[in-house]
Backbone:
């Protein structure tokens, strides 16, 4: 058996086989694979070297130059036909012409990094997952990204690994990449209905527990329509060092609630039996692909709302909701090119993702929102048009963003008993507005080489441009 395994491994090194790629730019072919003759055991190995540069010139700030070099390793495969795994790690070295602050490995500072000098830092990040098919249940565990909803730019439920450049987040003191989270869960299907549930650990403060539970029903309806219904519950130990004015704010020593792991129990009801103290949200999403190559989609998050009709009531700050809706057209062949486009609108009401009990209950981990990175009290209209010819893909994008900086517009804001009970969406006095126009070209002539360059121009309260270039070699 060992001879057959070794022989197959040697042959697999010489023959490229297809492998799953999680993101655009990840290696798409495996050149090093170790499998037995029956293919019950398989290990695929891929490596990648990435070098990227960015020049940012925004009004009222000096021109910034940033360079990041990364080494990435990918592993995936199976130990049996029922047990599959996927893992990847990235080790990065960043250089910049601006000062880098010290990082003390506290989650509230974002992803940790090591400051090597005033203008250099190193950091690393990994993600991994494993699943075991124990029919009829699929068991899942990992330290990975969770993503729900059909939105193509702004997920308002769970955004996973999505990362969008926002001018107000531009800083060398924090890495704004989203962070993975450890979780375990399970999934099973009954006809056209699939049930998924996760229990996850979030990170807000060292040695302070913070947890998220999420469960979801997916309905595969006729005419290629998919409907999703989901809930999340977030809670944890008090993280603030200053007194919170709300009487029920203290939750010192909050521990993991095992009752949330039980399937099919609505969190909205279960929370009441646990003391009515957690951050519960309810979400719906819809994808309609009835017309070939077209998609109409939407996501709606209800965060602590009284009733569906209260969405239109600005008299109470707790009527919090967020939504993304869009339309897309894919795979349109015209003039020997393949064309794709979409347009999407996102609206996030004031106070969404926040909680009056503070950081232990906010909808974030490692200082990054688990939902839309626009944050509370914001909106965006975004459109993209892409054309692919052979190994070249060109993309044009345009969008307009509004972000309110007033109280209730930051995910860390805490509403107190003496604060106003109403809410104001995008106040003209405190809202930043800007438009962005951009273009990008992706070139991948071979499976082992790719290059991308992009340019975005900003107009309005953020004036200037951002130019980027990324090259990668993978095998």
Residues:
């Amino acid at each position: 058996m060992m001879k057959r395994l070794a022989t197959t491994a040697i042959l697999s090194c010489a023959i490229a086989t297809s492998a799953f790629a999680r993101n655009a730019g990840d290696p798409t072919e495996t050149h090093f694979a170790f499998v037995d003759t029956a293919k019950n055991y398989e290990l695929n190995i891929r490596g990648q070297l990435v070098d990227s540069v960015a020049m940012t010139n925004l009004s009222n700030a000096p021109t910034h130059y940033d360079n990041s070099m990364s080494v990435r390793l990918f592993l995936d495969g199976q130990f049996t036909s029922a047990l599959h795994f996927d893992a990847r790690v990235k080790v990065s070295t960043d250089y910049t012409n601006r000062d880098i602050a010290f990082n003390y490995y506290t989650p509230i500072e974002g992803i940790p990094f090591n400051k090597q000098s005033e203008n250099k830092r190193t950091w690393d990040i990994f993600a991994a997952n494993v699943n075991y098919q124990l029919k009829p249940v699929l068991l899942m565990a990992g330290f990975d990204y969770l993503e729900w909803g059909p939105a193509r730019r702004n997920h308002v439920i769970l955004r996973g690994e999505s990362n969008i450049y926002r001018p107000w987040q531009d800083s060398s003191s924090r890495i704004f990449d989203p962070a993975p989270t450890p979780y375990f869960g399970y999934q099973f299907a009954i006809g056209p209905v699939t049930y998924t549930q996760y229990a996850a650990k979030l990170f807000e403060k060292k040695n302070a527990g913070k947890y998220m539970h999420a469960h979801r029903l997916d309905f595969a309806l006729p005419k290629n329509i998919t409907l999703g219904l989901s809930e999340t519950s977030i809670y944890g130990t008090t993280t603030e060092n200053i007194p919170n004015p709300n009487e029920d704010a203290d939750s010192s020593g909050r521990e993991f609630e095992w009752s949330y792991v039980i399937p099919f129990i609505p969190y909205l009801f279960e929370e009441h039996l646990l003391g009515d103290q957690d951050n519960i949200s309810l979400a719906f999403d819809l994808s309609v692909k009835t017309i070939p190559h077209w998609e109409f989609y939407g996501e709606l998050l209800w965060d602590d709302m009284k009733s569906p009709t209260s969405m239109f009531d600005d008299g109470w700050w707790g009527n919090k909701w967020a939504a993304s809706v869009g339309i897309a057209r894919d795979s349109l062949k015209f003039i020997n090119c393949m064309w794709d486009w979409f347009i999407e609108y996102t609206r996030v009401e004031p106070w969404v993702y926040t909680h009056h009990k503070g950081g232990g209950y906010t909808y974030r981990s490692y200082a990054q929102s688990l939902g839309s990175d626009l944050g509370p009290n914001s909106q965006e209209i975004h459109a993209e048009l892409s054309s692919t010819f052979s190994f070249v893909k060109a993309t044009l994008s345009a969008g307009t963003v509004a972000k309110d900086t007033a109280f209730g517009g930051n995910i860390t804001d805490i509403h107190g008993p003496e604060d106003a009970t109403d809410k104001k969406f995008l106040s003209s006095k405190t809202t930043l507005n800007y438009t962005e126009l951009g273009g990008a070209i992706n070139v991948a002539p071979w499976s082992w080489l790719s290059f991308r360059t992009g340019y975005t121009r900003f107009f309005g309260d953020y004036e200037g441009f951002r130019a980027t270039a990324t090259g990668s070699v993978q095998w």
Summary: The helical segments are 2-14, 267-273. The two ends are 28 Å apart (CA to CA). The first strand starts at residue 17 and ends at 18.
